[in-house]
Amino acid sequence: MTKPFKSFIKPDLKKIEAYIKKNLDPGTSIVNDESFNLYVTGGKKLRPSLALLVGKLGDKDKYNDLIKTAASLELIHMASLVHDDIIDDSETRRKRKTTFYKHGYFQAVNTGNFLISSAIEAVSHIEHQEFHDTYALAMRQIVEGELFQFDTQFDDMQTIDNYLDKIYKKTALLIVLSIKLGAFATNVDRKVLKSLIEYGYNVGMSFQIIDDYLDFTASEKILGKPKFSDLKNGHYTLPVLLLRNKDSTFRSMLKKYSKHRANSEELSKYILESNAIQESKAISNKYLDDALQNVTDIESPIKEYLVEVVEKLRDRLN
Amino acid sequence: MTKPFKSFIKPDLKKIEAYIKKNLDPGTSIVNDESFNLYVTGGKKLRPSLALLVGKLGDKDKYNDLIKTAASLELIHMASLVHDDIIDDSETRRKRKTTFYKHGYFQAVNTGNFLISSAIEAVSHIEHQEFHDTYALAMRQIVEGELFQFDTQFDDMQTIDNYLDKIYKKTALLIVLSIKLGAFATNVDRKVLKSLIEYGYNVGMSFQIIDDYLDFTASEKILGKPKFSDLKNGHYTLPVLLLRNKDSTFRSMLKKYSKHRANSEELSKYILESNAIQESKAISNKYLDDALQNVTDIESPIKEYLVEVVEKLRDRLN
């Protein structure tokens, strides 16, 4: 490997930032400022990075479309964060006060909508039917995923399959979309794309499982938001469901909690003392192993970077 | 004229309703139900009707695209209503409790987003670059219009030009968009389109001016929401600004109200006793006269219907 991934992708991410700055036009209103700040103050830029990486396998003369596609994907991701903060009544995100908390409903609804419309505008010029069909369908599925998440709040009987379907719609879907759109924008070969889509699915699933159990194990400083917030909000993630399936004491505790919604600390403590976190890590690792498998046959220098993304996630995991 | 507009357009509107019902899939969740109910329980369907009407001047074999375009425009309009109700903290709309009021932020943010994504999905298959560029830009301008409206809340020094710019972005823009997209979807001749766009602008401006002064003159039963809500929310519409420009007593009252935000009843009463409403009507009528002028040269049976739309608005006005 000549350069680490971060420095390899840096010039492209700089181009995206310049594009986003030009388009979000910070300095003109609260909404513009909040939008741009959300871009610059954090996030791993996983979605645009994957779109860019996949685009390296395609036509070089489509580079400008690729940049706009990658920017659009990050903008949609940001829109979902801003609206989620309203929905979840969240005070902090990425160690900063949320738009919703600082400026109220008006600015938060509009910031999200401004980001959605900016995302759509960024790619409207791309002449590629499947690109737009795929994007539109995914946007709708993401909203449906939100709803499904709400339907299963405080539902102590939900299955692990339910959970996997939720995290697919919540996270893996947009990561798969990033790979598809990066490929469509630059006309990547279809056979290669098939493996990349599976890679994206596995990376996405792993990513959300890690995110979910970090809510139990990481410090608030690292999380940039309060700990145990999923459990408090009745979002039962993999460690909870795994433990429920095999520990009858915990099953009773969870049933009681789901009914009365008090004493989430007791549950968190019980989970941390069990091996449910370790088991979740093992499942996440299995997805990462599969992701590596998906890219073994790719013949391109970008393969090393696709592997590096997986290894970075594995580091975060441990 | 063979048939009145309402019966002429009815079969097309039925097709749109069938399409929307199929896509919004009522019966499956609160969001789906709220979305579909908003479609069936009201609204003049002005935007889809204009798109359909303009589409009659274009290629007949593009009829399916035209139906989906018209549906998409109504869906975007509905999305803006649902999100507006969050922003304005509105309890009722079209004589029913709002989604926001009945089901809270979560369902309301998601219902709006579901409608936006459904709107985009409806037209993503249409292969027409300018169609998508125009749609994306308009969506962004609509959001910017929302923001501008907020910036001038309780601003008693804003100009009438400010107001006109606001109502353009709030209402006329989507009506103009309906005409453009109906034309693009069916390849309407560009020269004809130019006049139609001006017609749409004039109809849209008039429509919002009427809406704004009905807030003073119509009964709550007709409005389907509380009276004087614009004034209470600090949205100063045409009658307010006209009266401020020429009546120094009112100017002082408005200044005081903008500062202390109390006694909006006193202001409303003063406005109703002045001739500010009459003057607003005259301005609205001028836009309608211009709209009629815009369509004099159109040689098609739809001309009569374009005229009828204007006359319907003039009836609403008086």
CATH class of chain A: Mainly Alpha
The ordered H/E elements of chain A are HHHHEEHHHHHHHHHHH
Largest interface: A-B, 37 and 37 residues
Architecture of chain A, according to CATH? Orthogonal Bundle
- Flag low-confidence runs of chain A: none
Number of helices of chain A: 15
Distance between the termini of chain A: 24 Å
Give the helix/strand class of chain A: mainly alpha
Oligomeric state of this protein: homodimer
CATH topology of chain A: Farnesyl Diphosphate Synthase
**Rounded to an integer, what's the Rg of chain A over CA atoms?**
20 Å
Estimate the global geometry of chain A from the Cα principal axes.
Answer: globular
Keywords:
homodimer, 318 residues, mainly alpha, Farnesyl Diphosphate Synthase, two-stranded antiparallel sheet, 15 helices
Please give a quick description of this structure.
Two copies of one chain form a homodimer. By secondary structure, the first copy, chain A, is mainly alpha-helical. Helices cover 77% and strands 1% of the residues of chain A.
